[in-house]
Design brief:
60% helix; single chain; 178 residues; elongated; mainly alpha
Amino acid sequence: MTHGMRTEVHTSPESGGRGDRRDNAARYALLPLRIFLGVTFIYAGLDKLTDGAFMKDSGAGFVGDMMRAVRDSSAVPALIDLALKSPAGFGYAIALGELAVGIGALLGLLTRLAALGGALISLSLWLTVSWAADPYYYGNDLPYLMAWLPLVLAGAPLLSLDAVLRSRRRGRTGGGFR
C-alpha cells in the first residue's frame, strides 16, 4: 500500500469554497518561519552595525579577535584567513548581508534569493565560528541553515511582495500559465 501527499482541497458551504483548516494551515505553514528568520536576521545585522566594539580595530567584541579565536577549530580556516585581511570590512559585509536577507524574508521580496543568502551566511558561520560546538547541535548556525532551506525551495507564495508582483504580472499577461 502506498500513501501519496494529499493534494485535493475539500470544501464545505461553511468555508465559502476556500478549503478546510488543514488546507489553510498548509498554505500558511512557512509564514512563521519567514517572520522569525526575517526578524532575527534584521536584529543580528542591526546589532552588529550599532555595536561600537564589533567594527573597531581591536578589543573585546572585535570581529577580528573573534575570528582569530576560532580559526584553528574551524572546518575551513582559509575562509577565516580571507576575512582577516579586512576584519572590519568582513564585519560590515556580514551585517549588511544579514540586514538585506532579513528584510527580503520579512517582506517576502525576492524571497528565494534572500533565503539563499541567509543559508550561505549560516553555512559560512557554521563552517567557521560554530564548527567546534560539541555536540554539533549546540551550535546555532546549522539549525539556521536548515531553517532557510524550505524558503529557498518554496519562496513566499502568500502575504509577500513576491505574491503581489506575481499577481500583477499575471494580470498584465492575461492570466497565463502557473
